[in-house]
Write a structure and sequence with these properties.
single chain; alpha/beta; 9-stranded mixed β-sheet
C-alpha cells in the first residue's frame, strides 16, 4: 500500500478532476506484477494502468491481490468501471484504503467486487489516501473545493517593504516550490487588484507541468484589462463579477475569458457562491495568491481551509506585514477570537521554511 500511495502522489498534477489513485498488483507468490496511477481525465484509472502494465510484462494476474488507494469505480463516466475490469482479469482480492466519496460509487464498487467473489479489505493507508485527495473529498462531500491560501514573508512577518516592494523576499527554492503547489491545483485564484497592480502571469513556469490550471479572477466591476498578462498562457480564465458591463465583457471574452455574474447584497462577488460554482466546474483544490482585500474576505467568511506560508530568514523591520496581507478582522478583544490553526508540516526549503497550517477542524467532513 505504501508503494500504491507513492504512485498516487505521482498523479498530483495529472489526474484532476479525478482523484489521485495508485494501484499495485501482487501475485500469489508475493511479487509485484503490475503498477500504475490514474492518468489525465478521460484516460485510464490506476487499476487499468496496473493491469496493462502486468500484461505488457507478460505477467498473469489470476489469483493476484490489487492494492488500490481508493475504491475501484463502478460507473460509466469518462471510462468504464474499474471493478469490472479487476473481476474480468481474475483478481482474487482487493485491498483499498478508502470508500470513494463520489455518490456515483460510494460502496457500489466494493459491493460488485464481493458479488463476483472477490475478497475486499478496506482501511490500510486511509489517512494518507484521504490527505492526498483532500480536494476531491471536499468537492464530493462539501460541494466546494479545498481552499489553500499562499503567503510569503520575512521571519518578522513582513510581506513587503513599506513601498510595496516584495520581489523577492523568499528564495528561488521557495518560489519553485510555490509553482509546484500551483501545478497540483485545480485552479488558481486572484483578485483584480493584484492583476492591476502587479500584472502577473500567475502560471506554472518553474516546474514541469502537463497542464496550466485555470485562472479565476474576482473582479466585481470587470476592471481586468484585456491586455493583462494573465491571458498569455493557454488556459481557461474565469472572471467572476458583480455588475454587468457589456463593453468590458465583449473585450474580455475576445481574449478567451469566461464571465460569470455572482453578486452579493453589497455589490461584490459572492465568494461562497463562487466556490460552489468552481465545484460544479470540477475544481478540487483552489490555490489562492491574492492581495489583502480578497485574502481578508475569504478568511472573514470562513472560506479558507489551509495556509501555505513561506518564511525567509530575514528581518525587514518597517514594512507591510502578514496582518496587512491577511487582514482577517479588526483588533481582537479576546485571545479566543483568534483563528486557530493546526500545523500540518514545517519543512526547510533552501534557506527558507515552508509551513502548512490548517484552519482548525476544517478537514473534519
Amino acid at each position: 500500500m505504501r508503494m500504491a500511495l507513492e504512485l498516487g502522489a505521482a498523479a498530483k498534477t495529472v489526474s484532476d478532476p479525478n482523484p489521485r489513485v495508485g494501484c499495485i498488483i501482487l501475485s500469489p507468490n508475493g511479487h509485484v506484477v503490475g503498477q500504475g496511477h490514474t492518468q489525465s481525465a478521460g484516460g485510464p484509472h490506476a487499476e487499468i494502468m496496473a493491469l496493462r502494465n502486468a500484461a505488457a510484462k507478460g505477467h498473469s494476474v489470476a489469483g493476484a491481490t490489487a492494492y488500490v488507494t481508493l475504491e475501484p469505480c463502478s460507473h460509466h463516466g469518462r471510462t468504464g468501471p474499474c471493478c469490472d475490469a479487476l473481476v474480468a482479469a481474475g483478481i482474487r482480492k482487493v485491498v483499498a484504503s478508502l470508500t470513494d466519496p463520489n455518490p456515483l460509487v460510494a460502496g457500489q464498487g466494493f459491493a460488485r467486487l464481493r458479488a463476483a467473489g472477490v475478497e475486499v479489505e478496506v482501511g490500510p493507508g486511509a489517512e494518507e489516501a484521504r490527505e492526498l485527495n483532500i480536494g476531491f473529498f471536499s468537492r464530493m462531500i462539501r460541494k466546494t473545493p479545498w481552499v489553500r491560501l499562499k503567503v510569503a514573508a520575512s521571519l518578522d512577518g513582513k510581506t513587503a517593504l513599506a513601498d510595496g516592494t516584495s520581489q523577492w523576499i523568499t528564495s528561488e527554492a521557495a518560489r519553485t516550490d510555490g509553482h509546484a503547489w500551483r501545478a497540483r491545483a485545480g485552479a488558481l485564484l486572484t483578485g483584480v487588484g493584484t492583476v492591476l497592480e502587479d500584472d502577473p502571469r500567475l502560471d506554472v513556469r518553474l516546474v514541469e507541468a502537463p497542464r496550466q490550471p485555470p485562472l479565476v479572477v474576482v473582479d466585481s466591476q470587470l476592471q481586468t484589462p484585456p491586455s493583462a498578462r494573465i491571458f498569455e498562457p493557454t488556459r481557461p480564465v474565469w472572471i467572476y463579477a458583480a455588475a454587468p458591463d457589456a463593453a468590458a465583457q465583449v473585450a474580455l471574452e475576445a481574449r478567451g475569458a469566461t464571465i460569470r455574474y455572482l453578486p452579493n447584497s453589497r455589490g461584490k462577488v459572492d465568494l461562497a457562491a463562487l466556490l460552489r460554482d468552481l465545484a460544479v466546474r470540477e475544481v478540487n483544490e483552489l490555490h489562492v495568491e491574492a492581495g489583502h482585500k480578497l485574502n481578508g474576505s475569504l478568511l472573514r467568511e470562513g472560506l479558507v481551509d489551509e495556509l501555505l506560508f513561506y518564511l525567509a530568514p530575514k528581518l525587514i523591520g518597517d514594512g507591510l506585514g502578514i496582518a496587512n496581507q491577511l487582514h482577517a478582522a479588526g483588533a481582537l478583544t479576546r485571545l479566543d477570537q483568534a483563528i486557530a490553526l493546526e500545523f500540518k508540516s514545517v519543512e526547510p526549503l533552501g534557506p527558507d521554511l515552508r509551513i502548512v497550517a490548517r484552519i482548525a477542524g476544517r478537514d473534519r467532513f
